[in-house]
Specification:
Length: about 375
């Protein structure tokens, strides 16, 4: 349901989703946010994610993506040298967007699910199309962290700007973040793979093969650029348990604020009851903060690892790893999906061919 709305603070929008209710309940039981990783039900490892410095991550990250089912890695100081880390705030982003009429879509449940409309699903995601400036003004009214919420009993579900293609809307932001961060140079082959695919697809047309970045076809750059997104939210916004589509690896870098991540290996899939109602995404009905063991008893056999991602850090999540996240503070997160020649290149090929088939079916528009 998309709502055209001029003010996010309007009383008519006040509601509470099951996910946010669970966040507040968890906060009430565990008021010290620092302890949250150790308080996750059935947690297998507290902050057991391998931590590496950006400068030493190269070879170990390749192993993390290609060995067995992979393993998540936290890169310390991943973003601390980026201009974004020292200059981006809610206010600075508001100023950067003040001269343009950028429209964004925000929501109170992410990712969206068809299952939300079924009995016991908690109700359809509420989605609002508003100006970016208005959303950032809304952010200025929100508490800085979960433990700064004054009236927990009457606090409504906050709205999340997730998956925003910020660099297309505000190209100047690209100057503040490297397109290929230092830690990812050994694992992110996306653009080179797209160029090779471009050469193969158009070989029969005698089109020149792409050999340098300047000669890579425009569509390759567009696909590559669209894999980088920005997530902005007040404390308490969560991303429900899922793994990334298209067999993609992903990394998320905290520019501002802290986020709690709870991750499950691919081998736990049978314990997480994937929803058969979702076509575009792979999601679990389980809330890691409050798993319903009566409905989903196998969750007791899962092996979650939990950690708090600090400002300046990035977490690299291999393909197929389930993850849930909740913002502990006002948060700005840069996210990128990517493909690696030695592990998930086939997923990129399938994604491109699926997109091409869809465009052909719809008349190429």
């Amino acid at each position: 349901m998309v709502v055209e709305q001029n003010c996010l603070l309007n009383a008519e929008l006040h509601s509470i989703t099951p996910e946010f209710k669970n966040v507040l309940s968890f906060l009430k039981k565990h008021p010290n946010l620092v302890t949250w990783p150790s308080c996750i039900p059935y947690v297998d490892s507290v902050d057991g994610v391998l931590r590496l410095r950006s400068s030493e991550a190269s070879s170990q990250l390749v192993d993390a993506l290609t060995t067995d089912e992979g393993k998540p890695v936290i890169i310390s100081e991943a973003a601390t040298t980026w201009p974004a880390f020292s200059t981006w705030t809610i206010e600075s982003l508001r100023q950067k967007s003040s001269s343009s009429s950028i429209s964004v879509r925000v929501n109170n449940r992410a990712p969206a699910r068809h299952a939300d409309m079924l009995p016991g699903g908690g109700g359809q995601q509420q989605s609002l199309q508003i100006s970016l400036k208005e959303y950032l003004n809304y952010m200025n009214h929100m508490p800085d962290s979960l433990d700064k919420i004054d009236d927990v009993e009457n606090y409504s579900t906050p709205f999340y700007l997730n998956g925003w293609r910020a660099f297309a809307d505000i190209p100047l932001l690209s100057q503040d973040c490297p397109a290929l961060p230092e830690f990812s140079t050994s694992i992110d082959d996306t653009l080179a793979l797209l160029a090779a695919l471009d050469a193969q697809l158009f070989k029969s047309l005698q089109a020149p093969a792409s050999s340098t970045e300047d000669s890579i076809a425009g569509w390759c750059h567009q696909v590559n650029d669209n894999l980088r997104k920005l997530f902005i939210c007040p404390p308490g916004c969560s991303t429900r348990l899922h793994y990334d589509a298209g067999s993609a690896h992903g990394w998320l870098a905290q520019i501002k604020g802290r986020k709690l991540f709870i991750l499950y290996p691919p081998s736990d899939t049978q314990n997480l009851y994937p929803l058969d109602t979702e076509i575009e995404t792979v999601q679990s009905p389980i809330d890691p903060l409050r798993p319903d063991t009566d409905r989903w008893p196998n969750i007791k056999n899962a092996h979650p690892v939990a950690c708090i991602l600090q400002p300046g850090e990035a977490v690299v999540i291999p393909q197929g790893w389930w993850h849930y996240a909740v913002a502990l503070d006002k948060s700005i997160t840069l996210q990128r999906n990517f493909y690696h020649a030695g592990s998930n290149a086939a997923g990129l090929v399938q994604m491109v061919l699926k997109t091409a088939a869809s465009l052909e079916k719809n008349g190429g528009s």
